[in-house]
Design the sequence.
Protein backbone atom coordinates (compact mmCIF):
# COMPACT_ATOMS: atom_id res chain seq x y z
CA UNK A 1 0.00 0.00 0.00
CA UNK A 2 1.12 3.54 -0.75
CA UNK A 3 0.35 6.49 1.48
CA UNK A 4 -2.46 8.95 0.77
CA UNK A 5 -0.07 11.74 -0.23
CA UNK A 6 1.65 9.37 -2.64
CA UNK A 7 -1.71 8.32 -4.11
CA UNK A 8 -2.56 11.97 -4.73
CA UNK A 9 0.83 12.53 -6.34
CA UNK A 10 0.31 9.63 -8.75
CA UNK A 11 -3.20 10.78 -9.65
CA UNK A 12 -1.93 14.33 -10.24
CA UNK A 13 0.95 13.10 -12.43
CA UNK A 14 -1.34 10.91 -14.51
CA UNK A 15 -3.86 13.74 -15.00
CA UNK A 16 -1.11 16.12 -15.98
CA UNK A 17 0.22 13.60 -18.50
CA UNK A 18 -3.27 13.19 -20.00
CA UNK A 19 -3.64 16.96 -20.42
CA UNK A 20 -0.16 17.16 -22.01
CA UNK A 21 -1.05 14.44 -24.53
CA UNK A 22 -4.34 16.21 -25.25
CA UNK A 23 -2.48 19.49 -25.75
CA UNK A 24 0.04 17.86 -28.08
CA UNK A 25 -2.70 16.13 -30.10
CA UNK A 26 -4.68 19.34 -30.52
CA UNK A 27 -1.46 21.02 -31.62
CA UNK A 28 -0.98 18.38 -34.28
CA UNK A 29 -4.64 18.52 -35.36
CA UNK A 30 -4.25 22.30 -35.47
CA UNK A 31 -7.98 22.89 -35.90
CA UNK A 32 -10.29 23.62 -33.00
CA UNK A 33 -13.26 22.03 -34.78
CA UNK A 34 -11.46 18.66 -34.89
CA UNK A 35 -9.79 18.71 -31.50
CA UNK A 36 -10.03 21.79 -29.29
CA UNK A 37 -7.09 22.55 -27.05
CA UNK A 38 -7.31 22.23 -23.26
CA UNK A 39 -7.20 26.02 -22.86
CA UNK A 40 -10.18 26.77 -25.11
CA UNK A 41 -12.10 23.88 -23.52
CA UNK A 42 -11.40 25.36 -20.11
CA UNK A 43 -12.61 28.76 -21.23
CA UNK A 44 -15.70 27.22 -22.78
CA UNK A 45 -16.39 25.28 -19.56
CA UNK A 46 -15.99 28.46 -17.50
CA UNK A 47 -18.50 30.09 -19.83
CA UNK A 48 -20.94 27.20 -19.34
CA UNK A 49 -20.69 27.33 -15.57
CA UNK A 50 -21.76 30.97 -15.64
CA UNK A 51 -24.99 30.24 -17.49
CA UNK A 52 -28.29 29.43 -15.78
CA UNK A 53 -29.34 27.12 -18.63
CA UNK A 54 -26.36 24.88 -17.86
CA UNK A 55 -27.49 24.30 -14.32
CA UNK A 56 -31.06 23.67 -15.37
CA UNK A 57 -29.79 21.02 -17.81
CA UNK A 58 -27.53 19.48 -15.16
CA UNK A 59 -30.40 19.49 -12.66
CA UNK A 60 -32.79 17.73 -15.05
CA UNK A 61 -30.26 15.07 -15.93
CA UNK A 62 -29.27 14.45 -12.30
CA UNK A 63 -32.94 14.21 -11.36
CA UNK A 64 -33.46 11.57 -14.06
CA UNK A 65 -30.31 9.70 -13.03
CA UNK A 66 -31.24 9.61 -9.34
CA UNK A 67 -34.89 8.77 -9.98
CA UNK A 68 -34.19 5.90 -12.35
CA UNK A 69 -31.30 4.69 -10.24
CA UNK A 70 -33.36 4.52 -7.04
CA UNK A 71 -36.21 2.88 -8.90
CA UNK A 72 -33.82 0.31 -10.36
CA UNK A 73 -32.30 -0.44 -6.96
CA UNK A 74 -35.75 -1.10 -5.47
CA UNK A 75 -36.78 -3.19 -8.44
CA UNK A 76 -33.52 -5.16 -8.41
CA UNK A 77 -33.82 -5.80 -4.67
CA UNK A 78 -37.39 -7.04 -4.92
CA UNK A 79 -36.86 -9.29 -7.93
CA UNK A 80 -33.29 -10.29 -7.03
CA UNK A 81 -34.24 -11.44 -3.52
CA UNK A 82 -37.24 -13.35 -4.91
CA UNK A 83 -35.13 -15.04 -7.61
CA UNK A 84 -32.30 -15.73 -5.21
CA UNK A 85 -34.62 -17.72 -2.97
CA UNK A 86 -36.89 -19.30 -5.58
CA UNK A 87 -35.42 -21.03 -8.59
CA UNK A 88 -38.87 -20.96 -10.23
CA UNK A 89 -38.86 -17.17 -10.20
CA UNK A 90 -35.19 -17.17 -11.23
CA UNK A 91 -35.83 -19.30 -14.33
CA UNK A 92 -39.00 -17.39 -15.18
CA UNK A 93 -37.04 -14.14 -15.20
CA UNK A 94 -33.98 -15.62 -16.89
CA UNK A 95 -35.07 -15.08 -20.53
CA UNK A 96 -36.24 -11.54 -19.72
CA UNK A 97 -32.88 -10.66 -18.15
CA UNK A 98 -30.97 -12.30 -21.01
CA UNK A 99 -32.90 -10.22 -23.55
CA UNK A 100 -32.34 -7.06 -21.49
CA UNK A 101 -28.59 -7.75 -21.35
CA UNK A 102 -28.27 -8.58 -25.03
CA UNK A 103 -30.50 -5.91 -26.60
CA UNK A 104 -28.53 -3.15 -28.41
CA UNK A 105 -28.79 0.17 -26.58
CA UNK A 106 -29.38 2.28 -29.65
CA UNK A 107 -32.17 0.01 -30.89
CA UNK A 108 -33.94 0.33 -27.56
CA UNK A 109 -33.56 4.09 -27.50
CA UNK A 110 -35.03 4.42 -30.99
CA UNK A 111 -37.92 2.07 -30.21
CA UNK A 112 -38.72 3.73 -26.90
CA UNK A 113 -38.82 7.08 -28.70
CA UNK A 114 -41.54 5.67 -30.90
CA UNK A 115 -43.45 4.28 -27.94
CA UNK A 116 -43.06 6.89 -25.19
CA UNK A 117 -42.55 10.61 -24.73
CA UNK A 118 -38.93 11.69 -24.32
CA UNK A 119 -39.09 11.92 -20.51
CA UNK A 120 -40.35 8.34 -20.08
CA UNK A 121 -38.11 7.03 -22.84
CA UNK A 122 -34.96 8.13 -21.02
CA UNK A 123 -35.94 6.38 -17.77
CA UNK A 124 -37.11 3.29 -19.64
CA UNK A 125 -33.80 2.95 -21.47
CA UNK A 126 -31.85 3.41 -18.27
CA UNK A 127 -33.88 0.66 -16.58
CA UNK A 128 -33.27 -1.71 -19.45
CA UNK A 129 -29.50 -1.25 -19.24
CA UNK A 130 -28.89 -0.76 -15.52
CA UNK A 131 -31.48 -3.06 -13.96
CA UNK A 132 -29.85 -6.34 -15.14
CA UNK A 133 -26.51 -5.29 -13.63
CA UNK A 134 -28.06 -4.52 -10.22
CA UNK A 135 -30.31 -7.59 -10.39
CA UNK A 136 -27.33 -9.87 -11.01
CA UNK A 137 -25.43 -8.50 -8.03
CA UNK A 138 -28.45 -9.01 -5.75
CA UNK A 139 -28.93 -12.61 -6.96
CA UNK A 140 -25.22 -13.31 -6.44
CA UNK A 141 -25.50 -11.85 -2.95
CA UNK A 142 -28.43 -14.11 -2.08
CA UNK A 143 -26.55 -17.15 -3.43
CA UNK A 144 -23.68 -16.31 -1.10
CA UNK A 145 -25.77 -15.97 2.06
CA UNK A 146 -24.19 -17.78 5.01
CA UNK A 147 -25.56 -21.34 4.96
CA UNK A 148 -25.19 -21.77 8.73
CA UNK A 149 -27.13 -18.58 9.46
CA UNK A 150 -29.87 -19.63 7.01
CA UNK A 151 -30.21 -22.91 8.92
CA UNK A 152 -30.33 -20.99 12.17
CA UNK A 153 -33.28 -18.97 10.80
CA UNK A 154 -35.05 -22.15 9.72
CA UNK A 155 -34.64 -23.93 13.06
CA UNK A 156 -35.77 -20.95 15.12
CA UNK A 157 -38.57 -20.24 12.63
CA UNK A 158 -37.64 -16.58 12.36
CA UNK A 159 -40.35 -14.78 10.42
CA UNK A 160 -39.47 -13.55 6.96
CA UNK A 161 -39.73 -9.76 7.60
CA UNK A 162 -37.14 -10.09 10.37
CA UNK A 163 -35.02 -12.46 8.27
CA UNK A 164 -35.11 -9.97 5.40
CA UNK A 165 -34.33 -6.84 7.40
CA UNK A 166 -31.81 -8.16 9.88
CA UNK A 167 -30.10 -10.93 7.96
CA UNK A 168 -30.63 -10.78 4.19
CA UNK A 169 -30.31 -7.03 3.54
CA UNK A 170 -27.21 -6.54 5.74
CA UNK A 171 -25.63 -9.58 4.06
CA UNK A 172 -26.29 -8.01 0.66
CA UNK A 173 -24.51 -4.79 1.60
CA UNK A 174 -21.15 -5.46 -0.07
CA UNK A 175 -22.93 -6.56 -3.25
CA UNK A 176 -25.17 -3.50 -3.20
CA UNK A 177 -22.23 -1.18 -2.65
CA UNK A 178 -20.40 -2.57 -5.68
CA UNK A 179 -23.68 -2.46 -7.62
CA UNK A 180 -24.20 1.20 -6.70
CA UNK A 181 -20.60 2.08 -7.58
CA UNK A 182 -20.85 0.65 -11.09
CA UNK A 183 -24.57 1.32 -11.58
CA UNK A 184 -24.47 5.04 -10.81
CA UNK A 185 -21.78 5.82 -13.41
CA UNK A 186 -23.52 3.58 -15.93
CA UNK A 187 -26.87 5.31 -15.32
CA UNK A 188 -25.26 8.68 -15.94
CA UNK A 189 -23.82 7.53 -19.30
CA UNK A 190 -26.98 5.80 -20.46
CA UNK A 191 -29.27 8.67 -19.45
CA UNK A 192 -27.13 11.20 -21.33
CA UNK A 193 -26.97 8.95 -24.40
CA UNK A 194 -30.76 8.57 -24.32
CA UNK A 195 -31.16 12.34 -23.93
CA UNK A 196 -28.98 12.99 -26.97
CA UNK A 197 -31.38 10.99 -29.09
CA UNK A 198 -34.69 11.71 -27.40
CA UNK A 199 -34.15 15.46 -26.90
CA UNK A 200 -36.15 16.23 -23.77
CA UNK A 201 -36.71 19.95 -23.15
CA UNK A 202 -33.75 20.21 -20.80
CA UNK A 203 -30.88 17.85 -20.11
CA UNK A 204 -27.16 17.41 -20.63
CA UNK A 205 -27.81 15.16 -23.65
CA UNK A 206 -29.95 17.85 -25.24
CA UNK A 207 -27.11 20.35 -24.75
CA UNK A 208 -24.68 17.91 -26.36
CA UNK A 209 -26.94 17.67 -29.38
CA UNK A 210 -27.24 21.48 -29.64
CA UNK A 211 -23.44 21.95 -29.51
CA UNK A 212 -22.98 19.21 -32.10
CA UNK A 213 -25.57 20.81 -34.42
CA UNK A 214 -23.64 24.07 -34.17
CA UNK A 215 -20.41 22.17 -34.97
CA UNK A 216 -19.09 23.54 -31.70
CA UNK A 217 -16.59 20.80 -30.83
CA UNK A 218 -15.24 22.87 -27.97
CA UNK A 219 -18.73 22.95 -26.47
CA UNK A 220 -19.01 19.14 -26.73
CA UNK A 221 -15.65 18.86 -25.00
CA UNK A 222 -16.64 21.29 -22.27
CA UNK A 223 -19.86 19.38 -21.59
CA UNK A 224 -17.94 16.08 -21.50
CA UNK A 225 -15.57 17.56 -18.97
CA UNK A 226 -18.51 18.74 -16.89
CA UNK A 227 -20.05 15.24 -16.96
CA UNK A 228 -16.76 13.73 -15.82
CA UNK A 229 -16.61 16.18 -12.93
CA UNK A 230 -20.26 15.46 -12.02
CA UNK A 231 -19.73 11.68 -12.06
CA UNK A 232 -16.61 12.00 -9.93
CA UNK A 233 -18.64 14.23 -7.59
CA UNK A 234 -21.43 11.63 -7.32
CA UNK A 235 -18.85 8.92 -6.58
CA UNK A 236 -17.25 11.06 -3.91
CA UNK A 237 -20.64 11.87 -2.37
CA UNK A 238 -21.48 8.18 -2.26
CA UNK A 239 -18.11 7.38 -0.70
CA UNK A 240 -18.76 9.97 2.03
CA UNK A 241 -22.28 8.63 2.69
CA UNK A 242 -20.89 5.12 2.84
CA UNK A 243 -18.23 6.12 5.32
CA UNK A 244 -20.67 7.97 7.50
CA UNK A 245 -23.68 5.64 7.49
CA UNK A 246 -22.66 2.41 5.78
CA UNK A 247 -19.85 1.14 7.92
CA UNK A 248 -20.99 1.86 11.41
CA UNK A 249 -20.47 -1.85 12.16
CA UNK B 1 -41.64 -35.47 20.85
CA UNK B 2 -38.91 -36.61 18.44
CA UNK B 3 -39.23 -39.92 16.60
CA UNK B 4 -36.85 -41.17 13.96
CA UNK B 5 -38.42 -44.25 12.37
CA UNK B 6 -36.34 -46.48 10.13
CA UNK B 7 -34.30 -43.51 9.01
CA UNK B 8 -31.60 -44.18 6.41
CA UNK B 9 -28.98 -41.63 5.46
CA UNK B 10 -25.94 -41.79 3.26
CA UNK B 11 -23.38 -39.27 2.12
CA UNK B 12 -22.05 -40.32 -1.26
CA UNK B 13 -20.64 -43.83 -0.84
CA UNK B 14 -20.74 -43.81 2.95
CA UNK B 15 -23.79 -45.32 4.54
CA UNK B 16 -24.29 -43.46 7.80
CA UNK B 17 -27.43 -45.25 8.98
CA UNK B 18 -29.37 -48.04 7.33
CA UNK B 19 -32.43 -48.08 9.54
CA UNK B 20 -32.22 -45.91 12.59
CA UNK B 21 -35.00 -45.93 15.16
CA UNK B 22 -34.67 -43.41 17.92
CA UNK B 23 -37.07 -41.43 20.09
CA UNK B 24 -36.65 -38.64 22.56
CA UNK B 25 -39.66 -38.08 24.82
CA UNK B 26 -40.44 -34.74 26.46
CA UNK B 27 -38.74 -34.36 29.83
CA UNK B 28 -35.76 -36.51 28.99
CA UNK B 29 -32.18 -35.37 28.58
CA UNK B 30 -30.66 -37.78 26.09
CA UNK B 31 -26.93 -37.77 25.66
CA UNK B 32 -25.25 -39.01 22.48
CA UNK B 33 -21.65 -40.14 22.66
CA UNK B 34 -19.46 -41.38 19.89
CA UNK B 35 -16.18 -40.92 18.08
CA UNK B 36 -15.71 -38.05 15.63
CA UNK B 37 -17.40 -38.53 12.29
CA UNK B 38 -19.98 -41.03 13.52
CA UNK B 39 -22.90 -38.80 12.60
CA UNK B 40 -23.93 -37.19 15.87
CA UNK B 41 -24.44 -33.79 14.26
CA UNK B 42 -26.27 -35.47 11.37
CA UNK B 43 -28.73 -37.00 13.83
CA UNK B 44 -29.32 -33.56 15.36
CA UNK B 45 -29.86 -32.06 11.89
CA UNK B 46 -32.33 -34.84 11.00
CA UNK B 47 -34.20 -34.11 14.22
CA UNK B 48 -34.20 -30.37 13.56
CA UNK B 49 -35.59 -30.94 10.08
CA UNK B 50 -32.53 -29.38 8.47
CA UNK B 51 -31.67 -32.62 6.69
CA UNK B 52 -34.26 -34.86 5.03
CA UNK B 53 -33.84 -38.60 5.63
CA UNK B 54 -33.15 -40.68 2.49
CA UNK B 55 -35.53 -43.35 3.69
CA UNK B 56 -37.83 -43.69 6.68
CA UNK B 57 -39.48 -40.91 8.56
CA UNK B 58 -38.49 -38.15 10.96
CA UNK B 59 -41.57 -37.34 12.98
CA UNK B 60 -40.94 -34.02 14.67
CA UNK B 61 -43.43 -32.05 16.67
CA UNK B 62 -43.26 -28.69 18.34
CA UNK B 63 -40.69 -25.95 18.18
CA UNK B 64 -36.99 -26.55 18.22
CA UNK B 65 -34.07 -24.72 19.63
CA UNK B 66 -30.51 -25.57 18.66
CA UNK B 67 -27.02 -24.76 19.92
CA UNK B 68 -25.00 -25.45 16.79
CA UNK B 69 -21.42 -26.62 16.86
CA UNK B 70 -20.46 -23.13 15.65
CA UNK B 71 -21.92 -20.02 17.30
CA UNK B 72 -23.80 -18.84 14.15
CA UNK B 73 -24.32 -15.28 15.35
CA UNK B 74 -25.24 -12.33 13.13
CA UNK B 75 -21.93 -10.45 12.79
CA UNK B 76 -23.55 -6.99 12.65
CA UNK B 77 -25.71 -7.40 15.74
CA UNK B 78 -24.53 -7.03 19.32
CA UNK B 79 -24.40 -9.85 21.85
CA UNK B 80 -27.68 -8.64 23.35
CA UNK B 81 -29.39 -8.34 19.96
CA UNK B 82 -28.18 -11.80 18.98
CA UNK B 83 -29.40 -13.22 22.27
CA UNK B 84 -32.86 -11.72 21.76
CA UNK B 85 -33.01 -12.63 18.09
CA UNK B 86 -35.09 -15.80 18.31
CA UNK B 87 -37.29 -14.75 21.24
CA UNK B 88 -41.06 -14.74 20.96
CA UNK B 89 -41.85 -11.36 19.36
CA UNK B 90 -45.24 -11.28 21.08
CA UNK B 91 -43.66 -10.98 24.50
CA UNK B 92 -43.68 -7.50 25.95
CA UNK B 93 -40.45 -5.68 25.29
CA UNK B 94 -39.81 -5.09 28.98
CA UNK B 95 -40.32 -8.78 29.71
CA UNK B 96 -37.95 -9.73 26.93
CA UNK B 97 -35.23 -7.36 28.15
CA UNK B 98 -35.63 -8.63 31.69
CA UNK B 99 -35.18 -12.26 30.67
CA UNK B 100 -32.21 -11.43 28.48
CA UNK B 101 -30.46 -9.40 31.13
CA UNK B 102 -30.94 -12.09 33.76
CA UNK B 103 -29.43 -14.72 31.50
CA UNK B 104 -26.61 -12.48 30.25
CA UNK B 105 -25.77 -11.82 33.87
CA UNK B 106 -25.70 -15.54 34.73
CA UNK B 107 -23.50 -16.27 31.74
CA UNK B 108 -21.16 -13.36 32.53
CA UNK B 109 -21.97 -11.62 29.28
CA UNK B 110 -23.40 -8.44 30.75
CA UNK B 111 -20.28 -6.36 30.16
CA UNK B 112 -20.06 -7.67 26.60
CA UNK B 113 -23.75 -7.09 25.80
CA UNK B 114 -23.02 -4.15 23.50
CA UNK B 115 -20.12 -5.82 21.66
CA UNK B 116 -20.24 -7.42 18.23
CA UNK B 117 -19.40 -11.11 17.66
CA UNK B 118 -16.12 -10.07 16.01
CA UNK B 119 -15.06 -8.33 19.22
CA UNK B 120 -15.59 -11.21 21.65
CA UNK B 121 -13.80 -14.49 22.36
CA UNK B 122 -14.89 -17.88 21.07
CA UNK B 123 -16.10 -18.87 24.53
CA UNK B 124 -18.25 -15.74 24.80
CA UNK B 125 -19.73 -16.36 21.34
CA UNK B 126 -20.53 -19.89 22.47
CA UNK B 127 -22.33 -18.58 25.57
CA UNK B 128 -24.23 -16.05 23.45
CA UNK B 129 -25.44 -18.88 21.20
CA UNK B 130 -26.47 -20.86 24.28
CA UNK B 131 -28.37 -17.86 25.64
CA UNK B 132 -30.16 -17.37 22.32
CA UNK B 133 -31.19 -21.03 22.25
CA UNK B 134 -32.43 -20.98 25.86
CA UNK B 135 -34.53 -17.86 25.27
CA UNK B 136 -36.09 -19.04 22.01
CA UNK B 137 -39.54 -20.56 22.51
CA UNK B 138 -39.07 -24.32 22.23
CA UNK B 139 -40.38 -27.74 23.17
CA UNK B 140 -37.19 -29.53 22.21
CA UNK B 141 -33.59 -28.36 22.33
CA UNK B 142 -30.56 -29.79 20.57
CA UNK B 143 -27.18 -29.08 22.12
CA UNK B 144 -24.13 -29.84 19.99
CA UNK B 145 -21.09 -29.66 22.29
CA UNK B 146 -22.65 -26.67 24.08
CA UNK B 147 -19.88 -26.25 26.62
CA UNK B 148 -16.81 -26.77 24.47
CA UNK B 149 -14.25 -23.95 24.54
CA UNK B 150 -15.50 -22.76 27.95
CA UNK B 151 -13.29 -22.66 31.01
CA UNK B 152 -14.03 -25.19 33.81
CA UNK B 153 -15.60 -22.60 36.17
CA UNK B 154 -18.01 -21.41 33.52
CA UNK B 155 -18.80 -25.01 32.62
CA UNK B 156 -19.71 -25.87 36.19
CA UNK B 157 -21.86 -22.78 36.47
CA UNK B 158 -23.77 -23.57 33.28
CA UNK B 159 -24.17 -27.22 34.23
CA UNK B 160 -25.77 -25.95 37.44
CA UNK B 161 -28.21 -23.59 35.75
CA UNK B 162 -29.22 -25.83 32.85
CA UNK B 163 -31.46 -28.46 34.54
CA UNK B 164 -33.93 -25.83 35.70
CA UNK B 165 -34.05 -24.23 32.26
CA UNK B 166 -34.43 -27.52 30.41
CA UNK B 167 -37.15 -28.97 32.59
CA UNK B 168 -40.01 -30.62 30.72
CA UNK B 169 -38.31 -30.28 27.34
CA UNK B 170 -36.99 -32.96 25.05
CA UNK B 171 -33.25 -32.44 25.20
CA UNK B 172 -30.59 -34.04 23.03
CA UNK B 173 -27.04 -33.41 24.11
CA UNK B 174 -23.90 -34.24 22.18
CA UNK B 175 -20.76 -33.98 24.26
CA UNK B 176 -17.33 -35.42 24.89
CA UNK B 177 -17.22 -34.06 28.38
CA UNK B 178 -17.81 -36.44 31.27
CA UNK B 179 -18.94 -33.81 33.77
CA UNK B 180 -21.58 -32.36 31.43
CA UNK B 181 -22.86 -35.77 30.37
CA UNK B 182 -23.03 -37.16 33.90
CA UNK B 183 -24.61 -34.09 35.44
CA UNK B 184 -27.29 -33.42 32.85
CA UNK B 185 -28.38 -36.61 31.15
CA UNK B 186 -30.81 -39.26 32.27
CA UNK B 187 -30.27 -41.44 29.20
CA UNK B 188 -26.96 -42.04 27.49
CA UNK B 189 -26.45 -43.64 24.09
CA UNK B 190 -23.35 -44.56 22.28
CA UNK B 191 -22.91 -44.44 18.52
CA UNK B 192 -20.51 -46.70 16.64
CA UNK B 193 -18.63 -45.66 13.52
CA UNK B 194 -20.75 -45.86 10.29
CA UNK B 195 -22.93 -47.69 9.50
CA UNK B 196 -24.05 -46.43 12.87
CA UNK B 197 -25.56 -48.60 15.55
CA UNK B 198 -26.95 -46.95 18.65
CA UNK B 199 -26.54 -48.71 21.98
CA UNK B 200 -27.77 -47.65 25.36
CA UNK B 201 -25.02 -47.02 27.91
CA UNK B 202 -25.34 -47.57 31.63
CA UNK B 203 -24.76 -44.19 33.26
CA UNK B 204 -22.43 -45.89 35.76
CA UNK B 205 -20.27 -46.98 32.85
CA UNK B 206 -20.07 -43.45 31.39
CA UNK B 207 -16.44 -42.88 32.24
CA UNK B 208 -15.30 -46.13 30.63
CA UNK B 209 -17.29 -45.41 27.48
CA UNK B 210 -15.84 -41.91 27.16
CA UNK B 211 -12.33 -43.32 27.59
CA UNK B 212 -12.94 -45.80 24.80
CA UNK B 213 -14.27 -43.10 22.47
CA UNK B 214 -11.29 -40.91 23.19
CA UNK B 215 -8.98 -43.80 22.29
CA UNK B 216 -10.83 -44.29 18.98
CA UNK B 217 -10.54 -40.56 18.23
CA UNK B 218 -6.80 -40.79 18.81
CA UNK B 219 -6.65 -43.54 16.18
CA UNK B 220 -6.77 -46.58 18.44
CA UNK B 221 -8.52 -49.86 17.67
CA UNK B 222 -12.28 -50.16 17.68
CA UNK B 223 -13.63 -52.40 20.42
CA UNK B 224 -16.78 -54.54 20.02
Sequence:
Amino acid sequence: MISTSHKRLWVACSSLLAVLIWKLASHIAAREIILPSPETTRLSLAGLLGKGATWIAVGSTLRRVLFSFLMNIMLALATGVASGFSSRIYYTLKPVITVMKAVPTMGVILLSLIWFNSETAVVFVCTLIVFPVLYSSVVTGIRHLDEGLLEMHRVFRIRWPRTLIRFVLPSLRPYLISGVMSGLGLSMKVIIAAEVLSQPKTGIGTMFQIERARLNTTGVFAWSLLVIILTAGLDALFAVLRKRYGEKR
Amino acid sequence: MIHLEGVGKRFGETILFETLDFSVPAGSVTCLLGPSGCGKTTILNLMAGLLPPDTGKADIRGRFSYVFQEARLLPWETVRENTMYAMDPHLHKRERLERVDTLLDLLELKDAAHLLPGQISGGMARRTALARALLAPHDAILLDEPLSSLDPDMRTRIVELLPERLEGKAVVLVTHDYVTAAALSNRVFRLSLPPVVIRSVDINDLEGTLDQIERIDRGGSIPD
